[in-house]
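SAMPLE LOG
Freezer: B-3
Tube label: C17
Construct: single chain, 263 aa
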Amino acid sequence: MEAPLLHPLKFRQKSDLSCGLSIYSNTQGCQRIGADARFIDVENSASPICVATARNHFIIGLTMHLFQAIRERRSIKSFDPAHRFSKDEEDLLIDLAVQSPSSFNAQHWRLVNVKDASLRAQIRSVAADQSQVTDASLLFVVCADLKAWQKGPERYFRNAPQDIQDLLVPWMGKFYEYNDLLQRDEGIRSATFIAHTMMLSAKAMGYDSCPLIGFDPIEVSKLVKLPDNHVIAMMLAIGKSTKPAWPKPGYVDRSEILFENTF
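STRUCTURE (predicted):
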């Protein structure tokens, strides 16, 4: 569906996004500068656009539809080592990532954004020499704080109604205390949620990704100085692919994964 044509607006900001289009934007809409320049209604448009607040203005650019991003996301092995994310792109990626769900809203995830080239090389040496580690624009060590439930739990609900705060804040400690397995499970779950959100967000932004588990977690923990009571869930490489993924290798029959009521 085509976006509705709007009357011209006065624009305050200009951003040059990775899609190569110049975007003039304000809080009401944007003008896409291109062969078919037009105004897009940010609030009501059915067009695939991406909107995120940053520095009190909108960053608006072309993105693919969510369904398309889900279907086209692949674990890419070859990245352009010369490509760099802009600061606005990184901010957008993280802004989208932290919208992920977590138990009790504890946000257990901790992301180590590895920018130092020599550190990346050291990590690659204990990650089966996978080129994604050094070549991708971004490399995150996706971790979880297993004691997030103890660390000021009232802040996780500061915007919730008072009756919700009164219920969940004291319940949180009783739920996790003395249950180390549950603490670890929740940490890994939360880290997995944020990693998947980042993969889909990157794809929608026109980039690719690759989750990595083929590494020595003990050595990587040392290299990133992982604190006590934290675990590494995975590493995540994000960047500009240089080689398409092979055809999807195949899926098991739906009858093996979907059950109604009971197994």
